[in-house]
Amino acid sequence: xxxxxxxxxxxxxxxQEISAYIVPSNDxxxxxxxxxxxxxxxxxxxxxxxxxxxxxTATEAQVWTDGRYFIQAEQELADGPFVLKKQQVPHxxxxxxxxxxxxxxxxxxxxxxKLFSVQQQxxxxxxxxxxxxxxxxxLDLLGPLWEERPALPLHPVFExxxxxxxLSRAEKLQALxxxxxxxxxxxxxxxxxxxxxxxxxxxxxxxxxxPVFVAYLIVGLEEAQLxxxxxxxxxxxxxxxxxxxxxxxxxxxxxxxxxxxxARDTILxxxxxxxxxxxxxxxxxxxxxxxHLIRQQKAIKNHAExxxxxxxxxxxxxxxxxxxxxxxxxxxxxxxxxxxxxAQKIAACRAxxxxxxxESFPAIxxxxxxxxxxxxxxxxxxxxxxxxxxxxxxxxxAQYRDGTTDITRTIALSEPTAQQRLHFTLVLKGMIALSxxxxxxxxxxxxxxxxxxxxxxxxxxxxxHGTGHGVGAFLSVxxxxxxxxxxxxxxRGTCSLEPGHICSNEPGFYLPNEYGIRVENLILCVPHxxxxxxQFLRFETLTLFPIDLKLVEMDLLTAAEKQWLNTYHATVxxxxxxxxxxxELDWLKEKARISE
Length: 596
What we know:
Elements: H1 2-15, E1 20-23, H2 40-45, E2 53-57, E3 61-65, H3 70-76, E4 83-86, H4 94-102, E5 108-110, H5 118-129, E6 134-136, E7 158-159, H6 162-165, H7 169-182, E8 187-190, H8 193-200, E9 202-203, E10 216-220, E11 224-227, H9 235-243, E12 246-249, H10 254-260, E13 266-269, H11 276-281, E14 286-289, H12 293-299, H13 303-332, H14 339-351, E15 356-359, E16 364-367, E17 391-396, E18 398-400, E19 403-404, E20 407-412, H15 418-435, E21 438-440, H16 445-457, E22 468-470, E23 479-484, H17 491-494, E24 502-505, E25 508-511, E26 515-518, E27 521-531, E28 534-541, H18 559-576, H19 582-591
Parallel strand pairs: 1-5, 3-4, 5-6, 8-13, 11-12, 13-14
Antiparallel strand pairs: 1-2, 2-3, 7-9, 8-10, 10-11, 15-18, 16-17, 17-20, 18-19, 21-28, 22-23, 24-27, 25-26, 27-28
Helix pairs in contact: 13-14, 15-16
């Protein structure tokens, strides 16, 4: 049991004279979403959010997380020994500041170095050195305490056909090697699961909702080494990998291979994703630290990926239309389906579409006050019943072989109040402002993020999450580095937008215990025009689903905003009409009607 594990952990800290232990959320691959085997933080604390850090001392048991999870964490931690520590800046390591302020000089803080990147390790050591605190990363104290720990997954990998990928495995490897040579490197260590999957045109099911597999990859100028459990590689794929000079090695062999790399080689690593543990294995080889080469190539979608993304969006919209019609019919019949029921119905409607694989994250179906819990996940037992009153927030997405989707719609189930219409319209104005942006090449996500908040700011309102994240091509629904964020603690704030980047655009507003509002579309960065001031870019909206006009206060929209809304609804109708029955088309015409 976690309570006894916490006591046992503290006993271990006392025996080894350790003042504090840190448990992050990620795995050795710096993944946001991890296999069950690495959910150490969740197992010990009971907090299920995707982002958070535990700090355990003799007297403190803390969960540090950001504003997306404040309400959720308070609920999940209510009956346990852990207390919520609210991060003021998302992704900022404020728990390190707390340790520096509260531990004495000479204290020892411990952690498992496999779960910390080189970049994180250096930052922590530098901060601790200011106080004379030692950071010991050789101790995995939690693993031995988890008696029923799940095994590492052994699900087989499968091919992502070139038809969807746009480029073959060989073409991608050659493009990467060209970049490596330009950097003066003979080897490139790749730790991140999404980048390995994209480069090799392979997918897996080791992580729920994200089609990746647990592996490491080292790409040389002549051949590559894939470190993966051999049971996961089917015979036909093994043969294809051999033909492309990708040698399959044992997953656990990565340490030894790194240790034996020749001093004649220069290996490129990304200090933000390479673990401190693995970095320490690189004892002979020359190390070059630099940009994550595959991540940049993957982020800029090629023509085939963009084409298939648009296909996925059409299918996804049809599925959502059928799910929302089901909800309306159920409510009209006097039924009160639960939030969980509606999430299951959405998944079932999506499963009817071609090339559907899974949802891309657990659906957020937040009725009334639950909508204010930014990453709320309705439980199978005890989720709220949806009634013909108030507001419902629906944030969901799917994994299709031809693309990854993510959409949020907020709908009124009864006549909305003036306050609800005001808040919704301010959020919508922000979404439209970002969708309509024209900006010079080199503009980053932090600069554009302000556009989505401006209307809310004018009313002294705001929201505690980023405005958008990158989205993968049948990969992670949260794909770095691009996006929109209000600060520079994440690449979403610092990355410059490039043609081919696909991002979410999802401003929101939340009143705790009352309602949540969010409107989200996926947008594609495309060229706009060249001028004497250089190249200018804009966004093309990919998502195709109507916005609830009952919640829009039309008098608050400018003429340009009304035109955007009408044009968007006309586009939705045009691109979906040939996929719908007569009854479905009539429903869509009503929802996507043109407003004056």
